[in-house]
C-alpha cells in the first residue's frame, strides 16, 4: 500500500474533504462525495481514497469494504481540469500526502479485503479503476458504463491493467477502441458487473452480500485475496510452493483453530480476524 501502517494510526482523527468514511460492525463504508464534479477524482480525492483503503488493509477489525457514491453519477473518471491545474479549488483535508502519486489500481490490488462497489448510477473512464478493483460490483439496471477517452484524444491506459483479468482481450479492446456505452446487463455479460438489480433492491442486495461475507473467516479471506494477487507475479513452477506456504500460514491462525473447533462442536464460529 502507498500509505504505511504508521500513517493510518490516527485514522479516526483525520478530516476527509472528498470521501465519507464510516466503520461499523467490521465494515468500512467509503462514499465518494464530490457530487458537484460527478465524483471525478483529482489528487486530493485519490489520496483520501487510497488512505481509507490502506486503513482497511492494515486493520484486522475491518472485514469488508463497501464503496458507494453521492450524487447523480457514481464516478465520471479523472478530473482532467484539476490534473491540468485549471481547477485549484480545494476543501480542507488533513490526510497526509503519500510518498508517491496514487495509482488506484495498485491500491485496490493491495487491499486484500472483499470490496463491494454499490453502483447506483453511471461509471465512466477512470471510474473503472474502482469497480474493476472491487471483488463484487452490484449495479442498478439503469446504470451505464463507458470508456470515452479516445473521443478526447487520450486512451484508458491504466484501466486496461485493471480490466485485463476480468474479460477477454477482444472485449477489453472493443471497450477501449469504440468508446461504446454499455448497459448494466451488458457490463455483467463481459464480467465488469457481478449482479444487476433494481434501484429499490440495491441496498438490500449489498447488505445481504456483506452478511454472506461476514459469515466466513476474515483471516482466511484476507490471506486468500493476498495469495490471489501475489501469485500473479510468481513463475509457474513456483506457484504451488507459494500457495502451500500460504495454506500453512492460514492453518496456524486463530481463526483456523476456531473454525475447526466450531465444526467439531457443531456450532457457529466466532471469528476474530486473527
Could you write a compact summary of the structure shown?
By secondary structure, the protein is an alpha/beta fold. The protein is built from 11 helices and 10 strands.
Description of the molecule:
This protein is of the alpha/beta class and 274 residues long. The chain folds into 2 domains: 11-214, 2-enoyl-CoA Hydratase, Chain A, domain 1; 218-265. 39% of the residues lie in helices and 16% in strands. A 6-stranded mixed sheet has the order 1-2-3-5-7-10, with helices on both faces. Strands 4-6-8-9 form a 4-stranded mixed sheet. It is globular. 39% of the residues are buried. The model has no long low-confidence stretch (mean pLDDT 95).
Give the count of helical stretches: 11
CATH topology of the largest domain: 2-enoyl-CoA Hydratase, Chain A, domain 1
Principal-axis shape equals globular
Label the CATH architecture of the largest domain.
Alpha-Beta Complex
Task: Work out the strand percent.
Answer: 15-25%
Helix content: 25-40%
Distance between the termini: 20 Å
The number of E-state strands comes to 10
Report the sheet with the most strands, covering strand number, pairing sense and barrel closure. 6 strands, mixed
CATH class of the largest domain: Alpha Beta
Radius of gyration computed on alpha carbons: 19 Å
* Order of SSEs: EEHEEHHEEHEEHHEHEHHHH
Amino acid at each position: 500500500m502507498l500509505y504505511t501502517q504508521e500513517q493510518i494510526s490516527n485514522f479516526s482523527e483525520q478530516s476527509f474533504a472528498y470521501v465519507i468514511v464510516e466503520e461499523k460492525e467490521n465494515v468500512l463504508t467509503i462514499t465518494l462525495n464530490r457530487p458537484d464534479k460527478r465524483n471525478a477524482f483529482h489528487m486530493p480525492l485519490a489520496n483520501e481514497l487510497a488512505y481509507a483503503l490502506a486503513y482497511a488493509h492494515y486493520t484486522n477489525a475491518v472485514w469488508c469494504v463497501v464503496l458507494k457514491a453521492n450524487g447523480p453519477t457514481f464516478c465520471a473518471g479523472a478530473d482532467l481540469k484539476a490534473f491540468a491545474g485549471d481547477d485549484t479549488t480545494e476543501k480542507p483535508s488533513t490526510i497526509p500526502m503519500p510518498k508517491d502519486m496514487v495509482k488506484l489500481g495498485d491500491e485496490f490490488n493491495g487491499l486484500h479485503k472483499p470490496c463491494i462497489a454499490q453502483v447506483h448510477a453511471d461509471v465512466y473512464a477512470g471510474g473503472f479503476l474502482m469497480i474493476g478493483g472491487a471483488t463484487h460490483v452490484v449495479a442498478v439496471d439503469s446504470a451505464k458504463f463507458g470508456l470515452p477517452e479516445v473521443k478526447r484524444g487520450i486512451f484508458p491506459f491504466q484501466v486496461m491493467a485493471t480490466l485485463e483479468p476480468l474479460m477477454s482481450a477482444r472485449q477489453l479492446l472493443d471497450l477501449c477502441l469504440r468508446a461504446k456505452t454499455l448497459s448494466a446487463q451488458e457490463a455483467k455479460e463481459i464480467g465488469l458487473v457481478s449482479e444487476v438489480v433494481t434501484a429499490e433492491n440495491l441496498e438490500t442486495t449489498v447488505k445481504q452480500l456483506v452478511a454472506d461475507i461476514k459469515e466466513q473467516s476474515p483471516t482466511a479471506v484476507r490471506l486468500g485475496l493476498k495469495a490471489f494477487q501475489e501469485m500473479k507475479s510468481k513463475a509457474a513452477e513456483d506457484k504451488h510452493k507459494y500457495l502451500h506456504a500460504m495454506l500453512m500460514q492460514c492453518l496456524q491462525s486463530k481463526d483456523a483453530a476456531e473454525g475447526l473447533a466450531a465444526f467439531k462442536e457443531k456450532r457457529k464460529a466466532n471469528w476474530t480476524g486473527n
